[in-house]
């Protein structure tokens, strides 16, 4: 008995409907080794349900950070740069996230940006409009399949909100659909044609 201890995070699913999302997340996280993606340590069957065992992250979600303070343009640029590095690691495995949003991005106390929650991820995308409406890619609103390129549009939308300080503004699906159309074409992340978007 070596007596080795490690602090971990446990993500329990208490809904049988969420088990497939858990299986997706396990499959994806076992493929990814990235400084900017949360690390999977294992899985367990607990009394409360199946669970992922993840690295423990000490810090704050981007959504919570925005609730407490405004973020300078220099910090926004750093967050987006690290987020793009995490996406490169994901996309190099043919994996898209599918639900990038301020709540699924974590900033550690050491300033490392981590991408969380890969339950919706996949290589081929989905015809269903899921995810966080505020950050959904333009093509999803017209019923097209999501792809790895859709993640890039979501990053572009996130950057727009961080710069303007409106991440926590509440709205409805029509407002977010209209906003996606309004910002379309502003930069290389927000191109209307998914294949032309660049990290």
Give the SSE layout:
Blueprint: E1 8-12, H1 19-29, E2 40-46, E3 49-55, E4 59-61, H2 62-68, H3 73-91, E5 105-108, E6 113-115, H4 138-141, H5 148-164, H6 173-183
Antiparallel strand pairs: 1-3, 2-3, 4-5, 5-6
Q: Overview of this structure, please?
A:
The protein has about 200 residues and is α+β, with helices and mostly antiparallel strands. The chain is about 35% helix and about 15% strand. The chain is built from 6 helices and 6 strands. The chain has a 3-stranded antiparallel sheet, covered by helices on one side. It has a 3-stranded antiparallel sheet with strand order 4-5-6. Helix 3 runs antiparallel to helix 5. The longest helix is centred in the middle third of the chain and has 19 residues. It is globular.
The main β sheet shows up as:
3 strands, antiparallel
> Helix share of residues?
25-40%
Specify the overall morphology: globular
The chain-level structural class is: alpha+beta
Instruction: Report the sheet-strand fraction.
Output: 5-15%
Radius of gyration: 17 Å
Query: N-to-C terminal Cα separation, in Å?
Result: 47 Å
> What is the subunit arrangement here?
single chain
H/E element string?
EHEEEHHEEHHH
Q: Helix count?
A: 6
Q: Mean pLDDT score, rounded? A: 84
């Amino acid at each position: 008995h070596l007596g080795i201890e490690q602090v971990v995070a446990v993500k329990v699913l208490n809904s049988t409907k969420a088990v497939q999302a858990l299986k997706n997340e396990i499959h994806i996280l076992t493929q990814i080794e990235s400084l900017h993606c949360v690390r999977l340590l294992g899985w367990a069957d607990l009394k409360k349900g199946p669970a992922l065992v993840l690295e423990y992250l000490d810090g704050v979600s981007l959504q919570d950070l925005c609730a407490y303070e405004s973020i300078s343009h220099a910090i926004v640029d750093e967050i987006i740069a690290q987020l793009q590095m995490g996406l490169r690691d994901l996309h190099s495995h043919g994996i898209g996230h599918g639900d990038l949003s301020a709540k699924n991005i974590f900033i550690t106390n050491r300033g490392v940006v981590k991408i969380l929650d890969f339950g919706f991820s996949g290589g081929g995308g989905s015809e269903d409009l899921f995810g966080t409406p505020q950050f959904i890619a333009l093509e999803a609103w017209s019923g097209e399949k999501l792809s790895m390129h859709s993640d890039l549009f979501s990053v572009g939308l996130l950057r727009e909100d961080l710069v303007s300080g409106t991440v926590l503004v509440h709205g409805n699906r029509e407002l977010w659909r209209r906003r996606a159309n309004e910002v379309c074409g502003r930069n290389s992340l927000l191109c209307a044609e998914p294949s032309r978007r660049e990290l």
